[in-house]
Amino acid sequence: MKPLHGIKLYLALLHHPVRSKDGSTIASAITSIDLHDIARAARTYGVSGFYVVTPLADQQAFAQKIIGHWTDGAGAVYNPDRSRALALIRIRESLNQVTTEIGRQEDLPVRVVATSAADSPNQTGYPELSQALAKQDAVWVLALGTAWGLTAEFMDEADFRLAPISTGSGYNHLSVRSAAAIMLDRLLGREF
């Protein structure tokens, strides 16, 4: 798919390494609604690809069954628009696999941007990241965490930390699919 404005941006929905409610590192379950809604937002905003990351074989099979229904099965005939969106999804065991694959495909440095609902030191705002994306001198992976978010170790290893979505309401507990759509709009959407 040709990216909008020439920007090479990928999404990675991580189900590992993420945190449980008590803060321990876990692998979370895939939900079909996340696959559908994030893929549709990714296709709408011209994202180059959407990776779902889990080391769990049963979760990989579950995701592949959903994707196959909408890209090769009856769903592809029933709803071609949904088929085009879910065709963006690739299942991988780790983010390292994702960045290695993208680096080979694109022949550019790969930059990982970690996301969180919490403020953190050295975070990058949306205008600054949007300007960095526009330079087109790297390929970008926007890493989204499931469960209670990406682990602290993952956040520390990322190239950038994106500022959380803030509305001033004092409440910030969006679903990952809603957060993904808002982030894409803030980074790639047109201003009116």
Automatic annotation (TrEMBL):
<protein>
    <recommendedName>
        <fullName>tRNA (guanine-N(1)-)-methyltransferase C-terminal domain-containing protein</fullName>
    </recommendedName>
</protein>
<dbReference type="Pfam" id="PF09936">
    <property type="entry name" value="Methyltrn_RNA_4"/>
</dbReference>
<dbReference type="InterPro" id="IPR029026">
    <property type="entry name" value="tRNA_m1G_MTases_N"/>
</dbReference>
<feature type="domain" description="tRNA (guanine-N(1)-)-methyltransferase C-terminal">
    <location>
        <begin position="8"/>
        <end position="189"/>
    </location>
</feature>
<dbReference type="InterPro" id="IPR019230">
    <property type="entry name" value="RNA_MeTrfase_C_dom"/>
</dbReference>
